Amino acid sequence: MFGLVVRFELRDVAAAEAFDRLVRETVEQITALEPGTLVYATHTVEDAPLSRVFYEIYRDRGAFAAHEQQAHTLRFLREREDHVASVRVEFLSPGAEKGLPA
Length: 102
What we know:
By secondary structure, the protein is of the alpha+beta class.
């Protein structure tokens, strides 16, 4: 299993609305086309209306690599630049857990 957390800080309210639309479109494609993506959860942050946090779990690094090469992911990576002020990515190693596939 392979995971990461990504935090996005968005430029302004209009950018946040456009970013959220892009995310919804991207997640639809991830759901339909990526069996190796086990969890792809996006969140708004309480008391931080311009922040978004993604929690992603992949079957393995190969599934993550496949995700990164999908047309919908490449579109997301390209178009997000119009909306994002900063990005922080943290790669995760498995530890104690509940609810994730073995």
